[in-house]
Model the fold of this input.
Amino acid sequence: MQAGPCILRAVRPSDFKNLSALCADIKVRDIERYTSEWFGRTSNIKVVARPRSVHEVSDVLKYCNSSGIGVTVFGGNTGLVGGTMAERSEVAISTEFMNRFLEIDVSSGIATVETGLILQNLQERLAIHHLTTPYDLGARGSCTIGGNLATNAGGINFIRHGPLRAHVVGIEAVLANGDVLDLMSKSRKDNCGIDLKQIFIGSEGTLGIITKARIHCPSLHQYRSVALISLKGDFTSTVLETLKKAKETIGESLSAFEFIDGEGAELVGPLPSGMDPKYSGFAVLVEASGSASVSDKIENFLEQLPDSVEGVVGSDLESMSKLWHYRELLPVKMASLGHNLKYDISLPQRELYKLVEGIRLRYANRPDVLKIVGYGHVGDGNLHLNVALDPQFERNPSLESDMSHSVYSYVSECGGSISAEHGIGRDKLEQLFFSKPTVVLEYTRALKKMLDPNGILNPGRTIL
Amino acid sequence: MQAGPCILRAVRPSDFKNLSALCADIKVRDIERYTSEWFGRTSNIKVVARPRSVHEVSDVLKYCNSSGIGVTVFGGNTGLVGGTMAERSEVAISTEFMNRFLEIDVSSGIATVETGLILQNLQERLAIHHLTTPYDLGARGSCTIGGNLATNAGGINFIRHGPLRAHVVGIEAVLANGDVLDLMSKSRKDNCGIDLKQIFIGSEGTLGIITKARIHCPSLHQYRSVALISLKGDFTSTVLETLKKAKETIGESLSAFEFIDGEGAELVGPLPSGMDPKYSGFAVLVEASGSASVSDKIENFLEQLPDSVEGVVGSDLESMSKLWHYRELLPVKMASLGHNLKYDISLPQRELYKLVEGIRLRYANRPDVLKIVGYGHVGDGNLHLNVALDPQFERNPSLESDMSHSVYSYVSECGGSISAEHGIGRDKLEQLFFSKPTVVLEYTRALKKMLDPNGILNPGRTIL
Done:
């Protein structure tokens, strides 16, 4: 059972004229921004609609729905799983001109925005009121709130604030048939039965287009402290024990807990001052932040660790960014080696590093595999497994599919997720069955069928 | 369009025998616990099934679904909105014997349980590992995890941990037709498209029975400090300004922010030591808790308040519980006056207290209205408006429906919620349209129809 895309037709020249009557900003030329994605792959978008109101969104959708034309939904086009890759000829609907900051209730921290607003612009507006977004990610300068909601963005503050979903107070969403769902609650506490807005959060644009949102925003805290420590031993007795200690001692002020394995640390280079350059084991970055000084908490945490553990603390901006830089340098260094196979997965913490070890055991001796590293937001069970391929060799599809199968089979066995943060899009669609039982996939399709019976929204993506 | 209950038939004697073949524990006698609810109203339950496995749950549901018999789902039966009140003759399915604590992953804090487990029992098991549940409520000694999930329980730690939903890692749910949905992720970060488990959380048993759950549990912190302060002036410039200060200064360690209005404080009696007994204005209780001492944060917070503000701080167990007792005494004192009309609503914070003032203006001079008080979890926009009626007068349905209409119309105008914590059940069903637009109600019904086409689950409740 496929959710409907079979009945879709290609975009015709007459659609351009018809759509222009429904939406003031319709483009067919200079649309390269919409026909390519993050990794440079090209997509089959023929027309771009850039509505300025929910009515225009609704009218364009109604037209496409009744005509059987596929629609690709665009936020900032910063996704990493091909979510904007249209296979057939399609219409793009971009929310970029629906980007107004509508209201802020300072005492509750609830901000109301149009979803084309760029994350960083929202953060800057919030900062005036000593508030911030409950999530943050590298793409902040170009990703949109709508895209963040549609993908239930994770990011670096998850360990502190939990999923974005937890902070969404309300949304407005337009369905494939043009119906506008006003799910704009004004309070976080709203227990009126089934919470329909939840199905749109994380649905990657396949059930509707989110046009407005109300988000709970926490206070922006000034105090921050970062420790980078070096641990020797196995993952469980070092990294996980340290995480437990961090939760106990830093507690509610813990805002990041990241790890890099020894292979990764070796690649990045000597750890900052005072640490063993001949590194083996794990490097862990711990951040505390709060409404009052958190230095004591970091100190107390470090005191609880075995004497053999070496660490360096940064409490001023410069030293903190130096320590973060160490962590951020790893994917850059990996990319410089050659093409990277990247896996963004989550696993129960105890099983997390066994995957890296297993993959290393299986592939490390192949001449075309240069380096296998594990790093990530271990506090959330989120592992980034990156495998650098030697550019002297041709890409080998059978190696890649074998490795993908090994990784996702292990994830499946452990009950983990094949996509911790980045979503499914087009790239992980075929692997979805590793994470979801058949019956769950069936009911998901039924939900899609109910809300988008013609399957016009992001066809061929996210829903298997 | 009603979601199907019209086709349901009454329970017959033969059903008892048939159900006994499917589930070992079927009762038709001594079932008073299931035929009455919190307020003592009686319900039309004829047979009680107490399955011990998901297979038994599935088989009983399959039977009821194919026979067209209504089912009422029981957790701890502690709900306050008549969610277990069966109008027609129905079968009860109680999860009470599916109450095993299955697993805990200490480093991630993720606990796996059967959903008949009582909240307090889970809390006690977690405490061994210095963990606790991400929510807490008065009914902890008898409410079940399944009931908490089905109602998306709020409670007193919402301001710290957000909605229960944010901490649900996975669930197993059985649909009306007996299909078992395995939505048991093992990691909080799991972005594989549409998150189907979300529709069951808060659905009050109308879409399926939640039989298993995996919940993220935060660290149990030892340090706590409470302040009770007395504020004079209007709500916005006192309570809301104080809330803003608390968020800025106590920040991530803020774990409760409760208010009681002057009428309420007058009823409870003089505020603890050193405070003006002739009270007018507002009493605010602020709690900080954390992994290290929070006394400095409370002190710093109090220093930021105007000199005229009086307050008392409790940092040892006895003085803290004395201060909490002050807050908890209010509903008890109100109940002692006579029958209470109780409204559990949420509103944008700036509009919150205007409702109490408006209701007081409209009804305070009526001889049968004794006292109108406002109190609640103001940090979450949650207002408890209680109206004590004079027992010397007969209950007056027209007064009650007029007041209900006034309250909910105001809530509707402000975009608030007619049920902040307690849900809809039977009691708030007719008022649902005050909080939800027609089109949202329609799609909610369509979702119900898709998952429970015969409408056997909790008929006549939650879904309008």
User: Anything to note?
Assistant: Residues 1-5 of chain B have pLDDT under 50 and may be disordered. The two ends of chain B are 9 Å apart (CA to CA). DSSP finds 13 helices and 16 strands in chain B. Chain B touches chain A through 100 residues (CB under 8 Å).
